[in-house]
Amino acid sequence: MLFKNAFVFTGNAFETLDVRVENGVIAALGALEGEGLDCTGKYLLPGLVDVHTHGCGGYDFDHADREQLRHMERVYAAHGTTTVLATLMTNPLQLMLEAARRCGEMCGGVIRGIHLEGPFLSPAKKGAHREEYLMPPSVEVFDRLLEASGGRVRLVVVDPCAAGAMDFIRAVAPRTRIAIGHTPADYETAKEAFAHGATQVTHLFNAMDGLHHRKPGLVGAALTEQCFAEVICDGIHVHPAVLRLSFAALGERGLVISDSMAACGLEDGEYSLGGQAVSVRGRRATLADGTLAGSVTFAWDGMRQLIQAGVPREQAAAAATRIPAASVGLSDVCGAIAPGRRANLVLADGDFRREAVWLEGERV
Question: Which positions are annotated as active-site residues?
């Protein structure tokens, strides 16, 4: 297959190029001979990379069986996301172990690893996580989850204020990426966590104290230190003006996440997240007490929201492809259009409305 005259995202810019695909792999880029799909005036992006998503299409990673996981992969791909980390909520440990095993066995296609958002979080900033199953950071528990997953855990979240958190970060960082989140951590504690090996901040602004000019907190640390920072870009969790401001500060460190739940892609109604009832109305998902409970938008919607907020298209595209791949050590697998890479591609019109998706060269 040959894509002709597309605005191809090459990592930092859009360039008018042709792209040849052979046997599900990108074979060449440039001014290429031959007839193909005329993409004049359209954008060609690598499939998006979502490192923080709990589910879509009626299922979540905590409970889905093998066939339901396959269904989720198809739904993600149809909406432009061709790589995800299966993100697990805080649940009874045995349930988490079983989910880690099932998701680990599926890794290699759309699912490329596991993200443990729980259970090492602060009760004070638990968000939609169930407090009765939270626990202090434990290397032993992490090792059990890592083993159950077949070594597929690529990201784990920890509250750096918890007892033993810094020891946990030092012990686990050589084996997987560490994010800090769901925490009341101040600026100094966040910096200490980064010094010990943490590399990422979980959904910036949410489940943490806000920015204050004398108490910058975790937000201030994320905006000024050398770490990656996830941002839920659904226009609900973070105001568009703050999206524009934060991505101006983050630059190459800011990444789009969906934080989507099972209801993503479905109609308004009553759903669940981590064993708790969730009400979905429009683009807002809430627990019974009004707490925001993840999102019901895909990463593609988040990328478009960034553009609508005033973030340059090139930065928004990088924040949904190349940068999240880098944040979890997948730069050699996804997030780029380059010879030798899988042909996971998305074609969009001049307003970034998605028109078609190819997964390993096959149209979804």
Answer: 259
d(C-alpha 351, C-alpha 354), whole Å: 9
DSSP state of 105: H
Kindly report, residue by residue over 43-70, the tens digit of the pLDDT.
Answer: 999 999 999 999 999 999 999 999 999 9
What number of other Cβ atoms are within 10 A of residue 105's Cβ?
14
Q: Which fold has domain 48-334?
A: TIM Barrel (3.20.20)
Which residue is it, tokens 């096959």? 362
pLDDT in tens, 273-331: 767 777 888 777 777 777 776 778 999 999 999 999 999 999 999 999 999 999 999 99
Q: Are strands 48-53 and 25-30 parallel, antiparallel or unpaired?
A: unpaired
Distance of CA 344 to the CA centre of its chain: 17
**CATH of 2-44+348-363 given 3.80.10.10, 2.30.40.10, 3.30.830.10, 1.10.3720.10:** 2.30.40.10
Q: Alpha carbon of 110 to those of 51, 160, 250, 307: distances in Å?
A: 11, 31, 27, 25
Q: Where are the alpha helices (DSSP H) in 46-177?
A: 66-78, 93-106, 139-148, 165-172
